[in-house]
Design goal:
Length: 404
């Protein structure tokens, strides 16, 4: 049954209109108060995290509409962006017609814009979404932007959004310029059962329903809440699907199966970068080609003197990951064995200098052609120097000593 046939002005859960009902609930009100305080603070930085679908992006966009009267604002989804792509996207959001250029050129253009805005005493506001899915090169750009000052004040205010409590990223030494700017961090929680009911009913009222409980009785709202785990994004998807599939009102709980309406997102590969057993980065891959190396232009930066500027390339699809060594000076190891190219499997460990990179990708399957017992621990894998020492021992000439 279509939404129009229910007497509604349109589908209330398609997300095409401004979600005023979203910000009327307690979690979003708390989030708005937090962002307003951070915006007014001299540090001018805020970090909000929470599960995918909890409403971070909607909250941030609502806040941008509030702030747009006082300053230039921009929203950028950082997922899978390289350093130059991030800068280009920021400049475009601030109204620039961006021509292709190097990272340094784009950074200087943005620096000039921020310096110009500083004269108005209203630093621009930037929202960067999906921080946990950004590549290290783009994170490095964020640090440079966070460090910029003009006329004795920070040149840019920012809000960072992430799907996880990625303190291993923001708390790392390389992210100190960003961490030092944070007014604070906040977890945006999911709706309670009562908040989910209020949200669903307000959405229905906004679409023209005078009695929302004639469409979704309370027990149906409770079932939707349970299936969605209180996440507004999932509430919308499930409620929209129920309306489309219903053939009579009110909707009866016995006629729907919320389990079949939940959406499970496919996970892309993850790379866990460690050194001496300490996790330095946990990167969710988005781009299908990923460059690893020491250069700031790489997607995954490995700061190691034994790692080449452009050391290795990863290419992946829905069921495989291929590693290619780019003629690096010191070579690449996979599970302690030197390789030039390799089809990787789930939990394979790449050694780059003194660093380890573990691939986590269930779709790639498990390798069965080795018996190494310690592959689960990236700290135990041999590095380049260890392999060289092992080779040198094997190549030593045998010295025979005759006892008289």
């Amino acid at each position: 049954m279509s939404a129009m046939s229910l007497g509604l002005q349109g589908q209330p859960f398609d997300g095409t209109s401004r979600d005023t009902s979203f910000v009327s609930n307690r979690p979003q009100q708390d989030g708005l108060r937090f962002l307003r305080s951070a915006f007014a603070d001299r540090h001018g930085g805020a970090w909000i995290y929470g599960a995918s679908g909890v409403g971070k992006s909607t909250l941030a966009r609502h806040f941008l509409r509030e702030a747009s009267g006082d300053a230039a604002v921009a929203y950028v989804d950082g997922e899978g962006l390289y350093a130059s792509q991030l800068l280009g996207a920021i400049l475009e959001r601030f109204g620039y017609d961006v021509a292709p250029g190097s990272t340094d050129e784009l950074l200087e253009t943005l620096r000039a814009f921020l310096a110009q805005q500083a004269h108005t005493r209203k630093p621009p506001l930037l929202v960067v979404d999906r921080l946990n899915r950004m590549y290290p090169g783009a994170l490095n750009v964020l640090c440079k932007l966070a460090s910029m000052q003009a006329d004795g004040q920070f040149a840019l205010r920012f809000v960072l959004l992430s799907d996880t409590d990625c303190n291993h990223i923001i708390g790392s030494p390389s992210m100190k310029p960003v961490a030092d700017r944070l007014y604070g961090r906040m977890e945006l929680r999911a709706f309670t059962q009562k908040e989910s009911l209020i949200y669903l009913y307000e959405k229905l009222r906004a679409a023209g329903a005078s009695r929302p409980d004639d469409i979704f009785p309370a027990d149906v709202c409770d079932a939707i809440h349970s299936a969605a785990d209180g996440l507004p994004g999932a509430l919308n998807r499930i409620a929209a699907a129920i309306i489309d599939q219903s053939d009579a009102l009110p909707v009866r709980l016995s006629r729907i199966d919320c389990d079949e309406l939940t959406v499970v997102d496919e996970e892309s590969p993850r790379l866990v970068l460690t050194k001496a057993g300490e996790v330095l980065q946990d990167v969710q891959l988005v781009a299908t080609r990923v460059l690893l190396g020491r250069s700031e232009m790489c997607d995954v930066i490995v700061d190691d003197r034994f790692v080449s500027k452009q050391h290795a390339l990863l290419a992946w699809n829905e069921d495989s990951v291929i590693l290619i060594d780019l003629n690096s000076a010191n070579g690449t190891l996979v599970n302690s064995r030197p390789v030039k190219s390799r089809v990787l499997r789930n939990n394979d460990v790449i050694s780059l200098g003194d660093h380890r990179v573990k691939l986590i990708y269930a779709n790639a399957g498990a390798r069965t052609d080795y018996e190494d017992p310690d592959l689960a621990d990236t700290a135990t894998m041999m590095n380049i120097a260890q392999v060289r020492r092992k080779r040198s021992v094997r190549q030593l000439p045998l010295k025979v000593v005759h006892n008289s």
